[in-house]
Amino acid sequence: MESFIKRIETIYLPVANPKSSAEWYEKNLKLKAVGPAESDATQVRLALESGQFIFLIQSKETVKANFTEASGEEQCLLTLQVTDFQRFHEELHANGATITAIEDNDDCGQNFYVYDLDGNKLDIWSGWPVVPESK
To answer: Radius of gyration (Cα) for the chain, nearest Å?
Structure first.
C-alpha cells in the first residue's frame, strides 16, 4: 500500500517569547526567521535548508516539547542532522548554549543534545556513519 504522506513539512515548538527564541535559534543554530520577528509576535517561522520549517509558537502556559519515556528517560521531539558535527558542538559550547557531551552510538552515528531558551531538548545528530566497502 502506498502512503499518502510525502514528508514532514513543519514542526511546532512551544516557547514563551517567539522573538527571543528566534534570536536564540539564529545565534546558535543559524536558522533564519522568515520575515521580521516583531516584539509582540505570537509565532515565528524558521526556515531549514531542506525547505522545511520550525514554528516557534507562544504558549499560554509553560510547556516543553519533551516527554518522558516509559524507562524514565527524557526524550525530545526533534532530531536535526548537521554538517561539521564536531565544529557545531564547539560553537554551541563557545556561545554558552546548554549542551550535553557527544555520544558515540556506533552504527547510528554520534549525537548530543542542546536545550533552547524554553528547555526544549533538541537532538543534534552527525548522520549515519560512512561504512567502508569490503574488498
So the answer is: 16
Whether 99 and 56 have beta carbons less than 8 Å apart is answered as: no
Per-residue pLDDT for the chain (135 aa), expressed as one digit of tens each?
Answer: 899 999 999 999 999 999 999 999 999 999 999 988 888 999 999 999 999 999 999 999 989 999 999 999 999 999 999 999 999 999 999 999 999 999 999 899 999 999 999 999 999 999 998 876 766
Q: What distance lies between CA 77 and its chain's CA centroid?
A: 8
Q: What CA–CA distances, in Å, run from 44 to 29, 31, 57, 105, 126? A: 15, 11, 7, 33, 27
Model confidence, pTM: 0.89
**Which residues fall within 8 angstroms of residue 82, CB to CB, at 6 or more apart?**
88, 124, 125, 126
Domains in the chain, ordered, with CATH? 10-125 (3.10.180.10)
Q: Is 78 exposed, middle or buried (0-12, 13-18, 19+ CB in 10 A)?
A: middle
Cβ contact 124:87 at 8 Å = no
Specify the amino acid at residue 129: P
